[in-house]
Design a protein that fits this description.
Blueprint lengths: L1 H24 L13 E7 L2 E12 L3 E10 L21 E10 L5 E11 L3 E11 L2 E3 L3 E14 L20 E16 L4 E15 L16 E12 L2 E10 L7 E9 L1
Antiparallel strand pairs: 1-2, 1-13, 2-3, 3-4, 4-5, 5-6, 6-8, 7-8, 8-9, 9-10, 10-11, 11-12, 12-13
Length: 267
């Protein structure tokens, strides 16, 4: 009898421990753009094949920290359709690396964001920004995350005559600080059901010093879009798997709008 009681106690303890472990494992929100966990994802659409991976570096009762790597248009499918005035082929790939930390109790966080791509006139261009974010709950199903970034634009070639071919005599050498910029961004997530959710984002970037962010290259600017926006509809198969339908656009022209279908798996 005593052995039976001990056996039942051990089995009960094991079951409770397994339940707690499973609950902790499921304690992530894949619709939350600030949540930190380890995941891999792929998306494919009319803008090419995208890859996204996130690695959780640390986790405590109150703080999560992780790093995200993204590669857009990995196969460079649209490079042959993007040319500058010199006729040079410009890569359509872009890479993004982001480090972030979030307080899981008050929703306050901080991140550093770096995006690298090839500019048609200034060669290799990297935008590095950093800033805080916060979580604002609006009811049980609706969450808002405002973010403010400040940073700089680094270009391979910061010459005085951007309409000249990149390998001409005027070209500067090394890495040049082209502009100081500020970006305001907001995410909004609405949980339609326990499995279906919608996540939208809008950002506006402008220069505070140096080359204009949005002016035409011929006028001395970088000719980048001020506003960017996207909408993601996600369906959770499980707590750790989802499929997404993604729309992206900006205020430059309609040719930059794109659609993609994605799959994400969290470990």
């Amino acid at each position: 009898m005593k052995k039976t009681i001990i056996t039942l106690a051990i089995l009960t303890s094991m079951s409770s421990a397994m339940a707690v472990a499973e609950e902790a494992k499921a304690d992530i929100d894949m619709s939350d753009p600030t949540d930190v966990y380890t995941t891999l994802g792929l998306a494919y659409g009319d803008a090419g094949l995208d890859f996204k991976g996130m690695l959780m570096l640390s986790s405590t009762d109150t703080q999560k920290t992780g790093v995200i790597f993204e590669a857009k248009n990995m196969l460079d499918e649209h490079a042959d359709t993007i040319h500058d005035v010199t006729g040079d082929e410009v890569s359509a790939r872009s890479y993004r690396l982001r480090w972030g930390t979030i307080n899981t109790q008050n929703g306050l966080g901080w991140s550093i964001d770096a995006i690298n791509a090839e500019h048609p006139f200034f060669g290799n261009m990297t935008v590095v920004q950093t800033g805080p974010n916060m979580t604002i709950p609006v009811g049980d199903s609706f969450l808002i995350w405002p973010i403010v970034y400040v940073g700089g634009v680094f270009v391979e070639n910061n010459g005085d005559s951007p309409l000249t071919p990149r390998d001409s005599n005027y070209s500067s050498e090394g890495i040049n600080v082209s502009s100081a910029i500020v970006t305001g961004m907001v995410y909004a997530r609405y949980a339609i059901t326990d499995q279906l959710w919608a996540l939208g984002s809008y950002s506006y970037t402008t220069d505070i010093q140096g080359k204009s962010w949005s002016d035409a290259v011929g006028d001395g600017g970088l000719q980048m879009a001020n506003s960017k926006y996207d909408l993601t509809i996600g369906y959770q198969f499980t707590d750790r798997q989802n499929v997404t339908l993604i729309y992206r656009g900006d205020d430059s022209d309609d040719t930059d709008d794109s659609f993609a279908v994605g799959y994400n798996y969290a470990f």
